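Quick note —
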Amino acid sequence: MSDYNYAEFSTGDYNLDQFFGPRLGTKAPDFTLENANGHKVNLLDFKGDFLVLEMGSITCPRFQGRRETMSGLIEKHPHVDFSVLYVREAHPGKNIGAHQNIDDKKECANRLVNDGERRRVLVDDFEGTVHGAYGSYPNAVFIINKNGCIVFRAYWNNPDATGRALSQLLAGKPANVKSYFRPVRPDIAIKTLRDGGQGSVVDFFKGLPFLIWKNLIRRNFLLAFNREPQIRPDIKC
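Predicted structure written out below.
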């Protein structure tokens, strides 16, 4: 098992002070990956007006708590493509542990599909190469235009904000939306962690005070005063 695929969650596994993902208006990194069916595809091969790319795993409460609302966006925007990049397990436990090899990762991605995930599920490599290129956060989201440029990003997916950003982009306007950190519903968080098994719940709650301070309080405060560049929906980069 690599250091990337940690066996126990720790807040030290993430840099919660600085996000190293690609900046707005820059080229989105492209990779050849396998989808959940084992077919080779390019990340940026999509036919819609935009691609909404979200990071996720089955032990990530935030990702699981956003799936229903993200499915609603699929219904609302039929001319937009949606993909999930399956990354490392956010909160591994006894039942769903850290990936020991790429086959473990593919199995978890297929489990997500069998659980009703409607978006295209792409499987990152064992070392998390694509995840690293997109900042390594467990539930970041990016909107990418047909030119392969990033026109919206959020370190943590707030699907209401993502939906508003998408509507603005489809209307030909820059996505002038602040994506504030919103906690997942407690019942979804508990269910996700229990599904992970022994260790998943304990590790999460051990780091919860730090997570609340860094994300819910500090990040949201800084975001309120932050001004992102206004990026045209059709920008070429």
